[in-house]
Amino acid sequence: MRSVVSYNCIFVIGPTAVGKTAIGVRLACALNGEILSADSRQVYKGLDIGSGKDLSDYKVPESLAVKLNPALKSLCYEGVYELPYHIIDVTDLSFEYSLFDFVDDFYKAFSDCSNRGVLPICVGGTGMYIDSILRNYDMIPFTENPDERKSLEQKSYDELKQILIEEKEKLHNTSEFGDKERIIRAILINRFTKSPEYEDQKNKILSSRQKINPLVIGTTLDRFLVRKRIAERLKTRLDEGLIEEVESLHESGFSWQRLEALGLEYRFVSEYLQKKIESKEKLFELLNIAIGQFAKRQETWFRGMGKKGVKINWLPLENDIQVRFAAALKLARDLK
Fold first, then answer.
1. Are 189 and 149 contacting, i.e. CB atoms less than 8 angstroms apart?
2. Is the CB of residue 221 less than 8 Å from the CB of residue 141?
3. Is 50 exceeded by the pLDDT of residue 1?
4. 3-class DSSP state for residue 211?
5. Percent residues over pLDDT 90 in the chain
6. Neighbours of 308 (CB within 10 A)
7. Cα angle vertex 113, ends 112, 116, to 5°?
8. CA–CA dist 226, 314 (Å, integer)
9. Residue 160 and residue 157: Cα distance in Å, rounded?
10. What are phi and psi of 194, to 5 degrees?
11. What's the DSSP call for residue 316?
């Protein structure tokens, strides 16, 4: 007899440009779920085209929504079912959103969905965000020390960088050397995790959190096809106004350094607008290569999670999104 595995949330993970959101949205419709985003840039207001926020994906045509779940008919309005989502547009670029913030927001959204009888379906490709939940990182909401912040703000960028190197045993990645605000926040977080206050709060919060029992579904495609989809999507985003989006963010007051620290699209387009990249053709070439390398790193991260004990149920390497969704839905229903 097959043993039944009960789960209280679903994670749809994989590299960029493989259709994770489309699968997650269909699962949410079919299983009475809501989307929890695990994307480190979609948390920011104004980062729409470059982050691939695609909020239109959550406006599901009534015909599809009702086909997946007839009970959704009463929730459709003017031919559309607006699927609720969480952890998107939660702050702006004046705030340095961290892994601490994501963990806090995830558990709030998870509890909200669970308490309403809704299945949380987490979709994303930010490896550390996903790993922090699936492997239960000991992270709690971060509380700043105002006096420490004031003292750090008086130091130079190079001084702050040296402080972070000396005080933090292991840097997760060099993005922590972004702009001055990012380094200050990284220093403050690191100090907070070593304080008695942190230990007290950690014990209290971890004991009160609802237990996560996830079904993890992985999806990817043949590497050649991933690269092809990345190139096609990048061309579309440039046509839709990616350059103008970054230019507008800078004109609204955000420094080039702040935008470059966001990585990939925002970094390369910022360099192009500063004339560090000589043409749009060169911008496309360099950015296309960088996103492809990023996708490869994502796949490496997820394979590493599997080696560390996270059970990932990989969908077939099939370009047809409907085939992969059908496989995901069968898996979800068989295990429920």
1. no
2. no
3. no
4. coil
5. 78
6. 10
7. 90
8. 16
9. 5
10. -100, 5
11. P
Q: What is the pLDDT of residue 131?
A: 96
| Two tokens, residue 304 | 């590493």
Q: What's the Cα-to-Cα distance from 129 to each of 34, 133, 171, 244, rounded to whole Å? A: 18, 7, 16, 29
How far is Cα of residue 294 from the mean position of the Cα atoms in its chain? 14
Phi/psi of residue 41, nearest 5 degrees:
-110, -20
Per-residue pLDDT at 6: 83
Contact 336, 225 (CB under 8 A): no
Return the bridge partners of 218, or none.
13, 314
Neighbouring CB atoms inside 10 A of 295's CB total: 23
Tally the residues of the chain: 336
Collect all residues with Cβ–Cβ distance below 8 Å to 200 and sequence separation of at least 6: none
Using an 8 Å Cβ cutoff, are 105 and 91 in contact? no
Amino acid at 269: V
CA–CA distance, 141 with 202 (Å, rounded to integer): 9
Which structure tokens are listed for 26? 């269909």
Instruction: Say if CB 141 and CB 35 are below 8 A apart.
Output: no
In this predicted structure, what is the pLDDT of residue 5? Answer: 53
The structure tokens listed for 294 are 């990023």
Contact 6, 336 (CB under 8 A): yes
Nearest CA to 16 out of 261, 204, 297 is that of 297
| C-alpha Rg value of the chain to the nearest Å | 21
The DSSP line for 130-142 is HHHHHTT------
> Structure tokens of 12?
């749809």
Strand pairing class (80-82; 59-61): antiparallel
Residue 161 burial (C-beta neighbours within 10 Å; 0-12, 13-18, 19+): middle
